[in-house]
Amino acid sequence: MKNSHHPKIYFQLLFIVFLLTTMKAGAIEYKFNFGAADKKGYWKIKHSTVYGPTSLFGYDMNTVPKDNDPYFFSVTLPEGNYKVTVVLGNKKETTNTTIRAESRRLMLENVKTSPGKFVTRSFIVNIRNTKIGNDDSVRIKKREIGKLNWDDKLTLEINGEKPGLVEMVIKDVNVPTLFLAGNSTVVDQDEEPWCGWGQILPRFLKPKIAVANYAESGEAANTFISSKRLAKLLTKMGKGDYLFIEFGHNDQKQKGEDRGPYTSFKKSLKYFIDECRKKGGIPVLITPVNRRSFDENGKIINTLGDYPDAMRQLAKEENVMLVDLNRITKTLYEAWGPEESIKAFVHYPAGTFPNQSQPLADNTHFNTYGGYEICKCVLKGLIDNNSSLKKYIVKEVWTFDPAHPDDINTFFIPPSPFYSLVKPDGN
């Protein structure tokens, strides 16, 4: 009996065989063609190529390229670091493309081409799942279920005023990894208008290092450990990798005789440092970013108690590099002032987003502009510390001055299509 699905099944079996073969060889490479003409050696992607149970790659999240709207493309892949190389452009029209990966990690920002011109750009994406060995896993929160950071596929968001994706090549690569441990100010926020500085970081690094952001909203240093996020991270860490550690916001809310900045907090941070060094990694302490809280003279009020000082103290004791983000963001916020700084945080009047009946007024969490500027502050701290990571930082960041932040009026990154009015944990 003839099976009408036979060609599709055959196609998928062929791809699975190819996947298993390349995995065994330790070299994965996929080539996709999104253009009108076929190209030898490339998988032709059509509107009907949809990711799902019967397809290991294709358009995802119920989207396809249409009317310059953002769309998603996913590929089933094992955990690891992948170099993604894209060709962008259009024979007849100008293009302007922004690409995010996984849970809204910014990879490429407003890449423009003129008619008939094409450009090639590369970036590194880290993908992971929750498994720790064969019989354990990260204790993720309910809000993280279904999050694109915790699955066995690579997902890209193709966005922009006029997206111009023509080709894509994905290869597994062996590069250093920069791991991030932190809270909601660092995390890859899934939905607009929220943004952690960690999800901006890949944008400002050369495609020779991966960013693996394990931060999560609501986490303190000790809960990051107890939820087994650090345990998972350490299974992937190798010699020469980096671990950025920023906590304090949620730690300061913990009560009890055994809780405090110079006791339990320092003890947890020292555990991060010791375990990282056991793996041959390089720990970096980052003091907690300031909240937006001004006094009557326009100066930032310290709302984090002794937690930044405890981290400074530990950095000296353990001979660990310290990025004093707390001090750098004091300079940044005071340069903005009380009114201008609002534009960097999630402050939006009712009706700004679909079904938003109440205003949003959050002085802890950033929007994309805020996350973008805070990320530059972190990189500025690395440069000023003469970190070995300097060689990976793109040159345009080297001249950034927190006392003279980028003009909000000239800043634009197209928003992702998904929104949430729910404040992150730990607000």
Describe the 3D structure:
- The chain is α/β, with parallel strands linked by helices and 427 residues long.
- The chain folds into two domains: 14-174, Jelly Rolls (Sandwich), CATH 2.60.120; 175-427, SGNH hydrolase (Rossmann fold).
- It is 23% helix and 25% strand.
- It is built from seven helices and 19 strands.
- The protein has helices at 6-25, 221-226, 229-236, 261-278, 307-318, 325-340, 368-384; strands spanning 29-33, 43-44, 57-60, 71-76, 80-89, 95-101, 105-113, 118-127, 131-132, 136-137, 153-162, 165-172, 177-181, 210-213, 242-245, 282-286, 321-323, 345-348, 360-366.
- The strands form five sheets. It has a five-stranded mixed β-sheet with strand order 2-1-12-5-8, with no helix packed on it. Strands 3-4-11-6-7 form a five-stranded antiparallel β-sheet, with no helix packed on it.
- Strand 15 (242-245), helix 4 and strand 16 (282-286) form a beta-alpha-beta unit.
- Helix 4 crosses helix 5.
- Residues 1-8 and 21-25 have low confidence and may be disordered.
Count of alpha and pi helical runs: 7
Radius of gyration: 22 Å
Calculate the mean pLDDT score and round it: 94
CATH fold description of the largest domain: Rossmann fold
What's the helical proportion of residues?
10-25%
Give a concise summary.
The chain has 427 residues and is α/β, with parallel strands linked by helices.
